[in-house]
Specification:
four-stranded antiparallel sheet; Enoyl-CoA_hydra/iso; 2-enoyl-CoA Hydratase, Chain A, domain 1; 308 residues; methyl/ethyl malonyl-CoA decarboxylase activity; EC 4.1.1.94; globular; Enoyl-CoA_hyd/isom_CS; lyase; six-stranded mixed sheet; binds ligand LP2KCY5N
């Protein structure tokens, strides 16, 4: 449960989200005071260490200081960018780094080698098939993806090729989705006799609504680019003559053109509104506003008549 706590002083706002306490400062940056699990207190450390031993592939994080956009690449070409155990842990570590990147305004999630992600590595599912392993993997992935969704920068999934099972779930952890003309998203979980477990089921309801989510999940319906746009799952289609990463960068740059404090503040306001009741969200919005009102970006724009 989210709990607004107090304005520390004019410069800092202290709040807690479940067991995570964070402080938001005048620059719109936040830092965690503690990083315990968002969703569970179960100590799954040893199981996560076992999962981590299922190696293969990598998660690459690049931060571009000029555009203030980071690119997270899912790279496990041999098995169509399926996530090995070590990649799940690397994804968590990359989110740690992004939380510390105070200048960042945007983040792109993309797959290497012209495809997005074919879900969890099925070899991992074969080796670690107990409910305890399922619980530990879900906790790791849900916590990581919840933190991705709540980053104070705007996130975009750029989908080329296939996003299947857990791969489809990953796309739902981003604020926006761009999909290339021939790409496909499919929640294939029922075909494997399972359900979503990385938080994608719950997030899908928020994105497309309850009835459409039921259809897409239970029916394991193949979602083309055109369908995704029509269902509100994608925000735009990338035409075949465009390089997908460039198209994603250009699309995102238009949204994050404003000053860093405003962009990060807005993302946090929207995140809180999404997770809190209206009263708390309004209170939080007011509190973030006090960190930008009278701050250098506004004063400079008043002084020089500059518009961002
Ligand atoms: C919580 C998430 C979790 C869940 O609970 O649901 C999951 O995500 S489970 C995984 C769900 N995903 C799938 O079921 C996708 C399975 N893969 C495919 O359907 C196809 O491979 C593909 C992704 C459509 C690509 O087809 P194609 O281009 O024809 O290539 P191949 O089929 O020949 O695949 C090449 C190579 O990759 C291996 N592969 C693909 N996906 C996975 C995966 N998820 N885990 C492990 N390995 C995967 C595939 O077996 C081939 O290997 P080789 O036979 O050794 O060449």
């Amino acid at each position: 449960m989210w709990r607004f706590m107090s304005i520390q002083n004019r410069n800092e706002l202290l709040c807690t989200v479940n067991r995570i306490s964070c402080v938001i400062n005048r620059k719109g940056c936040y830092r965690h005071l503690s990083r315990t699990s968002v969703l569970s207190v179960t100590d799954n450390t040893s199981i996560i260490q076992q999962l981590q031993k299922v190696e293969g592939g990598k998660i690459k994080l690049e931060k571009f200081d000029d555009s203030k956009i980071a690119v997270l690449t899912i790279d496990n070409e041999r098995i169509r960018n399926a996530l090995s155990g070590s990649m799940m842990v690397q994804l968590r570590d990359a989110i740690n780094q992004l939380e510390e990147w105070k200048e960042g305004k945007g983040v792109i999630l993309i797959g290497a080698s012209s495809t997005f992600c074919s879900g969890a590595d099925l070899n991992l599912a074969k080796q670690f098939n107990s409910p305890e392993h399922g619980e530990a993997m879900c906790e790791l992935m849900q916590t990581t993806l919840t933190r991705l969704k709540r980053l104070p920068m705007i996130s975009l999934a750029v989908i080329e090729g296939k996003a299947l099972g857990g791969g489809a779930e990953l796309t739902t952890a981003c604020d926006f989705r761009l999909i290339s003309k021939n790409a496909e998203i499919r929640f294939v979980h029922v075909k494997r006799g399972v359900t979503p477990g990385w938080g994608g089921g719950s997030r899908l309801v928020n994105i497309v609504g309850r009835r459409m989510a039921l259809r897409l999940l239970a029916g394991s319906i193949k979602i083309t680019a055109k369908d995704a746009l029509q269902y509100g799952l994608a925000d735009d289609i990338i035409s075949s003559d465009q390089v997908t990463l460039h198209a994603g960068m250009n699309w995102l740059k238009k949204i994050i053109d404003g000053p860093v404090n405003s962009i990060r503040g807005i993302k946090q306001i929207v995140t809180y509104a999404d997770d809190l009741g209206t009263d708390q969200a309004l209170q939080f919005e007011r509190s973030v506003f006090t960190t930008v009102w009278g701050a250098p970006a506004l004063m400079e724009s008043l002084e020089t008549k500059k518009k961002y």
